[in-house]
Amino acid sequence: MAEAYIVDAVRTPVGKRGGALAGVHSADLGAHTLAALVERTGIDPGAVDDVILGCCDTIGSQAGDIARTAWLVAGLPDHVPGVTIDRQCGSSQQAVHFAAQGVMSGTQDLVVAGGVQNMSAIPISAAMLVGQQYGFSTPFAESPGWLKRYGDQEVSQFRSAEMIAEKWDISREEMERFALASHERARTAIAEGRFAGQIAPYPLEDGSVLDTDQCPRETSLEKMAGLEPLAPGGRITAAVASQICDGSAALLVASEQAVEEHGLTPRARVVHLSVRGDDPVWMLTGPINATKHALARSGMSIDDIDLFECNEAFASVVLAWMKETGAPHEKVNVNGGGIALGHPIGATGARLMTTLLDELERTGGRFGLQTMCEGGGQANVTIIERLG
């Protein structure tokens, strides 16, 4: 099978909810990283076969196939198509998978993959609720077929996070220590300039430029302990959950032929890509079996991986995943994760890949594994190998 190479990756700074990027139209937010990617790689944008962007809640400013509109807003060629995909939180990681698969199949040579989400403008799950305005019931959980299969029970990420904490005996204090480490790691990464090379600074209307992630906080275990749980008597609080935020990211995936023809220098090779499903009521447990499946299919062990990115939707998700897979915390989310850096759902997969690639290069690691929990009980896994 043909190889798929990651040529480059770029992202916006992540803007906090109601922060610097809140008023930016989603198409412009996506266009920013697409234009930056073309500029950084020096590719002829007319040679791109397709643009694949992840995005959830594709209504309002995110409707109308935002992959296509963002490319056009960036001033790039009309003849290059675009497609928007939704695999919930894994949407832009899946975009990378589809791009790599297109290249591996031999049907495409240059594909742009990424994601965009403005959660300040379009609240999470807005698309699920908009039908109520027209007299429709809420999606899936009230479907007769769903009720017949799974019964009349709450299906939510918050319930899942609580169920995971209980099943894997993860205390509130353990989750708060994990959350604090996420913030500390993120602040250290920012202070040391680890993200500087991967960020395309965003010019704002007031003439200033946003060049730094806005979400990491100065916090403490004492502050976290004072928060009320999201459910009465529960262990999950806002402190151990990912932050609502805004951002975009994009990668260029190329075939060996395209690398040679366009004089490109790839930064990484895609070693493995897969996606697996799990119980949709538990929802957030997907990364556990998906990671085990990916390692088995690739013939690798957990010890072969130098760095991991497991999305911090909630602290309990990553802590349970580490317990089940044996991934050591010192190799997981070493620059912080969604608890500190935010989780712009449709863009997070590409943001994680961008950060993982940079960190492999900074530390000299060879293999990186990325996974994330996704709505419907799904999880993508990507393993990349640093080149050079």
UniProtKB/TrEMBL annotation:
Which intervals hold domain Thiolase C-terminal? Answer: 265-386
Q: Is the keyword Transferase assigned to this protein?
A: yes
Q: Which Gene3D superfamilies match?
A: 3.40.47.10
Q: Thiolase N-terminal domain location, by residue?
A: 5-257
Q: Which InterPro entries match?
A: Thiolase (IPR002155), Thiolase-like (IPR016039), Thiolase_C (IPR020617), Thiolase_CS (IPR020613), Thiolase_N (IPR020616)
Keywords in alphabetical order, please: Acyltransferase, Transferase
| EC number, UniProt record | 2.3.1.9
Q: Which Pfam families match?
A: Thiolase_C, Thiolase_N
Q: What's a Gene Ontology MF term here?
A: acetyl-CoA C-acetyltransferase activity
Q: Where is the active site?
A: 89, 343, 373
- Quote the PROSITE patterns the UniProt record gives: THIOLASE_2
Which family, according to UniProt?
Belongs to the thiolase-like superfamily. Thiolase family.
Name listed for the protein in its UniProt record = Acetyl-CoA C-acetyltransferase
